[in-house]
Amino acid sequence: MTLANRRLGRRLTGVGVATASLILGLETPAVAVSPTITSFSPTSGPAGCVIVITGKDFKNPDVSSVDIGGTPVTAFKIVSATEIWATVAGTTSGTIHVTNSSGTANSPTDFTNTNPGACSPTIKSLTPCSGSAGTTVVITGTNLLASADPATTQTDVRFAPYTAPAVHTTPNAETPTTLSVVAPSDAADGQIRVSTFNDVVGEGAVLSATAFQVPPPDITCPPTDHARFITLSLRRHLVARGKVNSTEAPAFTDCAAAVPVKVQRRVSGRWRTVGRTTTTDTGAYKKRIKDRPGKYRSVAPKINQFTYLCFRAVSPIRSQPLGSVLSEARQKYRPSRGPR
After folding, report:
1. Which residues are bridge partners to 265 per DSSP?
2. DSSP output for 86-155
3. Within 13 A of 177's CA, how many CA atoms are on the CB side?
4. CA distance readout (Å), 194 to 101, 102, 166
């Protein structure tokens, strides 16, 4: 066999071995690389603050340590190849370092250790913002985690009267921007409090701007399309009279008081408002309008799905308006026929 043929045979043998290795899953993995940090948030905060570090190659191989200015963090979680959550330890400020077996990444800027810095939690929304005990509430905001691993150290979430922490539904799935908790059995109307690195409002704690509403246990909200009725009676010289009633009286007596009412006349195929008034404490209303024949109606807003809010019409924490769907009563008015 010639020298050229022997070399060709060795090359073909090498190709065959490599192919077999790939098929059997024995091929050597891709060359490991050092991680890279592109940014982190928040940029400042005290011990206990959870930082979200973004970059790449955090799992090639897995990051083995994280430190800030040389001080190791108390805990960290590799969320993905591009994201790590880390809990600040001590009082050291400085560059964030992320290390794997191939090298160390340095953050482009320094982290500043200060209280509260930019690490105070915020609450943007509650979904839903009302419900009875056992209702699952999703809280969205920023800096909501008390630990890089929420399954190990859960954020303290409390409903009024703030006696016991709420149960987290899926701690492993919670993020710095989302928490999911269950309203406790003693929950009452009031703001929800979230505490992270400490329990001081304005530092590691925050109260929701929207109050969570708990309907009384002995009241069932009626359906929206049967929650409120209005009557209309037209007299000579057109004095519109009527009354607003609630289907669940006496439980919802307050739903008939201070209700805005519009008196409207049909003109050229459209309803035009010719008078506005508000019901008294008993639900009655009266409004004098121009004496013109035609079709008239009175309209008032129905109670929305949070019907029990009518019960708290004078409460400063009530933040949701009544629904815009209208309850109405109609009557045709002919002056020549006398009173109607």
Report:
1. 272, 296
2. EE--TT--EEEEEEETTEEEEEEEEEEE-SSTT---EEEEEESSB--TT-EEEEEEES--SSSSTTTS--
3. 3
4. 38, 39, 10
Prior bond of 61 cis (ω within 30°): yes
d(CA 264, CA 274): 5
Tens digit of each residue's pLDDT (9 = 90 or more) over 114-156:
999 999 999 998 888 888 889 999 999 999 999 999 888 899 9
Encoded tokens for 126: 């509650």
List, for residues 172-196, the tens digit of each pLDDT value: 899 999 999 999 999 988 999 999 9
- pLDDT tens profile 66-88: 999 999 998 999 999 999 999 99
Query: Are 150 and 168 spatial neighbours (Cβ–Cβ below 8 Å)?
Result: yes
Asked if residues 231 and 306 have their Cβ atoms less than 8 Å apart, the reply is no
